[in-house]
User: Fold this.
Amino acid sequence: MTRINSLEKYFFIVIIGLNLIPVLLFTFFPTLDGPAHLYNSQVIKSLLTNNPSTLNDFFSFNKEPVPNWIGHFILTCFNSFLPAFVSEKILLLTYMIGLPVSFRLLIQTISPKNTWFSYFIFPFTYSFVFYLGFYNFSIAVILLFLTFNYWLKHENKPFTFRKILTLFTFIALTYFSHIFVFGILLFLISLHIAMNTISQLSDYDRNIKRTLQTTLKKIGIVTLTSAIPFTLFVFYFYSRPSTGYSSFIDRIELIHWLKNLRPIIALNVELEEVYTRKIVYLILILTFIVCFTKCRNIHWNPNTSIKQRFTNFIKQLVLQENLWLFASIMLLVLYFILPDSDGAAGYVSVRLGLLFYLCYIIWLSTQNFPSWFGIISTVLVLYCNFRLNSYYTSSTKNLNGIAKECYNASKYIPSNSVVLPLNYSDNWLVGHFSNYLGIDKPMVILENYETDTGYFPLIWNDTAIPNTLFGNTNSSDFECLNWKSNTQNHTSVKINFVFVLGKIENQTDSCTQKIKQLLAAKFNLVYQSNNCKLYQSIKNSKTHLKIRG
Assistant:
């Protein structure tokens, strides 16, 4: 048995390695927000290390200690001495390895007999949230598993200063990764303490005073280690008044998302749901087995009093294994009642759906199943995972090609230039691909969604931003364009480069026609590839046209 367990451990490592293929095979693994995170990490590095430059006029650090710092911190550190695409690889590998490992460690702690459930995590690695480029959220999920696992292993042992510091670090890192996952973490720990206390108090042989003292000690440790991040958590919401806007997804659609496991469908619903539904069917079969087994094991002793029956029922209900069932039910309720967007945060429903499934799978892992069923389940899950990965690999090949074209255009842009990006592509995933221009050198790219939100490390430097001109025109002169500019500032800066992604020549609306005329009159085409073009302002233009493909 020991040898089998050892071989299984190596098998898990091999699966992790094979699961990395879509990330490792190409220069870039493009996601929606990924290029923006890479670009802003470069801006952060430039602001920290460079002398005053054009970037200082446009960007400044967010003085509020907001979440969403961890991903940027990792990228900035590695980007200081490595090429940006390598830095991104390190971040992606941290997630791709960290998620399966942290999930498995938690399963091994709470249910070592059902370690095979750890293979269920692999289809969740290339999730829709991950393809959106929500790296901070993804890292926060890893920290959620690691932190809760650390609590489970040490809650009943003496807490030394080192352990308290370690727990504080885990909790703080979770907050600075993602605020919502931080809230889930505190809820899970609190629910665990409450259920553990109720279970012990229902035991007549327990010393009530000692039990309450132990509980208060645990509450004190959690309060101490989470006080600072929790204060920041409260301040974060207090300082942001409601936008008054809420967008809900129809409940029928939400139910459909649960049926086809929408949270892990990344690129093509029709193609991917062929495999995701198989995973859902497997989860339903496992649920049926659990329900059948529990119903069969119910035996009421006619000599047992109603009070004793009630006590036994409470004991069964608050068993620690059911923590994850309660957590999944709570997440499911939030999934149906919370808006998908409140005007600031978005994609709430799909994140809740993802966390619901993960918690529910953890709960299933605490139940009793035949060992042969674990083998069948693992084979089915891995089959679905690698069929999906095969599709992701082919899709990444095409996206990587577009990303490299954008990145190659940056060779014609000097440092500290001001670039106006225009996106005419019909591919939703390339929305921030213009940011690949600035991942390895300082430049101002006038498309930066992060600085608009206020909950990322960087914000617009509104007091210093100059009047930014496209030729001799302001942004208000265009119906279809809106770049960052301060028309009230007497200092003006002209846009040095215009980057076009997609086919601008196919656009016939009046606004685009005006853009074309301005490009023809004031700019030279200096780079062209299959999917993008780069125009440089005629003034000081010394670069020759390069046509790729």
User: Anything to note?
Assistant: The mean pLDDT is 89. The longest helix spans residues 371-409. The chain is about 55% helix and 5% strand. The longest strand covers residues 418-424.
